[in-house]
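Q: What residues go here?
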């Protein structure tokens, strides 16, 4: 906060016109005059809060004692700082400043916020008549202000007191300290300890980071901000396949795909209040004198779109879907690691607008089943790989016990419960699937929330059976969680399997090359090309290792790349319709016809999406990554 304090003989000011959309409403536009007054020109800056206001009041009291002034005019003056707070936040803090000063001085006035004003002032001629102050984060609270924008919801999350339980299959809500974890998966205990401690920092590099580099999937980008990765062709193909699969399943469920901007005007009336209800840090930027932020979810665009729709109760539930590439959250540096937690990520985000709570609960159960199906098809086993957490207010639990028991029974195992005595966020219930990695860290995948605020906040309405306007309940679902996090889980699972002596792998449909053809000599390359065309025409990705390397090295490299099927093509294969297949997953070698091999692979690929290779078929033509 920046203050310019002027001990003045008089000041006159007159509102001329509104300067911003959030300008205060003024009952009368007329010139106002005060005499023998301390005029406080004030600019509220990004990062200011109530502690900053309190420190500013102390400075103003001290200055008033020095100049023996008793009248105060608070005059919003944005030109004192290039780092202004969002308008809504600035107005809230100005009102707070006015209230606190009003308790110390008998005469306090404030010029209207958000207006262009004309003013005249005559400053007294003594040495203390002009004084400037900068009230920084250090001055206000003794703590260095960070560059991150932290929502009130995040601050509340740190202060909130939760009660923790395990909810079992018979509907018993058992306090955490009384639950016998020996009766369940050890991962449920790990999840409970992780969530209660709220420790998100990573002390060592998880195995998937080595694997994402080794397999040529992704790597850190030193020229970008932390938490923004580069994806190589193999990683890009894998992401595209996951995105296509999740989008297909959401479409079958009834999701209507849309696309919305990645940045929004912070001065929009609905935005600032939503910042402070969403537990995330955002990226801020300035352009054309506008304060913008990068979206941290698809909520903004979908809500603004729904506001402009004409919606009937017959249209509900209305399911809007977007795969955000990207969403941005300014996570803490110590929490960023590999693909597990990023600052830029791809998130399948589906909102359902429901006519009432009963419809919302019914829809939530459908979306839980959708999420279970999606993660299973992605290669993540609900019975072994994930644990469930459900969070809700005590009031919602007391009013909806049977529904919550039904929700948990669909998961078929005890779940971790976090119960809030009061609501800190815009949602009253949230469930999530969590994967526990080898470092005993939990990472959320699928999730859904019951949102009871944003329909009102964004003025979204529908017309009910009686032709009355109503506000919908909104559900926030990602059936898979972030696409990058899905890859993290698959790689971590592979690392765990490797330690157990199993063959590390990722699902066949997600591997870049599904069949590797190795010609014994150059004369066999032409037949390899014929086979590649056969595989490709049957939606199977195949390539040819035509490099000037030994056959043995080519086989080892195929194994290192986790390619499921390796075929060595020599003279025998030219004279026969059969080939010898090295099957990496079974570690077997067997003879089979090309037609039967194609049938076997296509049966394993089932209904999964297909994309062709995004690198040259011949390895000799590829750059080395």
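A:
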């Amino acid at each position: 906060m920046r203050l310019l304090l002027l001990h003045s003989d008089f000041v006159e000011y007159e509102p001329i016109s509104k300067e911003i959309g959030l300008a205060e409403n003024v009952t009368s536009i007329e010139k106002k005059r005060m005499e023998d007054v301390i005029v406080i020109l004030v600019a509220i800056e990004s990062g200011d809060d109530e502690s900053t206001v309190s420190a500013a009041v102390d400075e103003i009291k001290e200055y008033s004692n020095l100049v023996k002034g008793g009248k105060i005019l608070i005059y919003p003056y944005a030109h004192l700082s290039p780092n202004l707070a969002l308008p809504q936040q600035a107005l809230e803090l100005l009102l707070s400043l006015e209230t606190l000063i009003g308790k110390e001085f008998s005469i306090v006035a404030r010029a209207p916020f958000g207006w262009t004003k004309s003013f005249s002032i005559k400053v007294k001629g003594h040495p203390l008549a002009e004084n400037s102050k900068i009230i920084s984060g250090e001055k206000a609270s003794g703590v260095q202000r960070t560059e991150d924008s932290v929502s009130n919801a995040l601050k509340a999350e740190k202060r909130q007191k939760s009660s923790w339980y395990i909810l079992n299959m018979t509907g018993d809500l058992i306090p955490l300290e009384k639950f016998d974890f020996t009766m369940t998966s050890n991962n449920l205990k790990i999840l409970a300890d992780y969530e209660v401690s709220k420790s998100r920092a990573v002390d060592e590099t998880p195995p998937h980071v080595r694997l994402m580099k080794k397999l040529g999937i992704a790597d850190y980008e030193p020229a970008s901000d932390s938490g923004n990765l580069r994806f190589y062709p193999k990683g890009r193909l894998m992401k595209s396949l996951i995105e296509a699969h999740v989008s297909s399943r959401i479409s079958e469920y009834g999701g209507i795909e849309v696309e919305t901007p990645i940045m929004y005007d912070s001065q929009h009336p609905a935005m600032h209040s939503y910042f402070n209800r969403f537990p995330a840090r955002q990226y801020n930027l300035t352009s054309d004198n506008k304060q913008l932020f990068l979206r941290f979810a698809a909520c903004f665009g979908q809500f603004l779109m729904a506001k402009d729709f004409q919606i009937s109760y017959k249209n509900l539930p209305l399911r809007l879907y977007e795969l955000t590439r990207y969403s941005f959250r300014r996570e803490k540096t110590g929490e960023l690691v590999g693909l597990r937690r990023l600052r830029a990520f791809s998130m399948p985000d589906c909102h359902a607008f429901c006519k009432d709570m009963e419809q919302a609960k019914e829809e939530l159960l459908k979306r839980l089943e959708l999420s279970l199906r999606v993660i299973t098809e992605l290669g993540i086993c609900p019975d072994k790989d994930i644990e469930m957490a459900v969070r809700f207010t005590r009031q919602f639990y007391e009013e909806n016990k049977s529904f919550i028991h039904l929700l948990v029974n669909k998961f078929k195992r005890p779940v971790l419960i976090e119960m809030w005595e009061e609501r800190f966020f815009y949602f009253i219930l949230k469930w999530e699937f969590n994967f526990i990695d080898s470092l005993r860290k939990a990472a959320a995948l699928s999730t859904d929330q019951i949102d009871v605020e944003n329909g009102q906040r964004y003025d979204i309405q529908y017309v009910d059976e009686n032709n009355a306007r109503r506000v919908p309940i909104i559900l926030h679902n990602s059936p898979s969680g972030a696409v990058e996090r899905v890859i993290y889980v698959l790689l971590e699972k592979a690392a765990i399997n490797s330690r157990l002596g199993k063959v590390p792998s990722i699902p066949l449909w997600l591997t870049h090359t599904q069949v590797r053809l190795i010609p014994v000599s150059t004369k066999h390359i032409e037949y390899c090309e014929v086979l590649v065309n056969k595989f490709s025409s049957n939606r199977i990705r195949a390539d040819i290792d035509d490099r000037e390397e030994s056959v043995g090295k080519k086989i080892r490299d195929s194994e290192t790349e986790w390619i499921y099927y390796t075929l060595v093509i020599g003279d025998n294969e030219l004279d026969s319709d059969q080939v010898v297949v090295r099957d990496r997953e079974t570690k077997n070698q067997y003879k089979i016809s090309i037609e039967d091999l194609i049938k076997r692979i296509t049966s394993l690929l089932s209904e999964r999406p297909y994309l062709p290779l995004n690198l040259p078929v011949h390895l000799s033509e590829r750059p080395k990554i």
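A: Context that may help when evaluating the design: The mean pLDDT is 90. The first strand starts at residue 2 and ends at 18.
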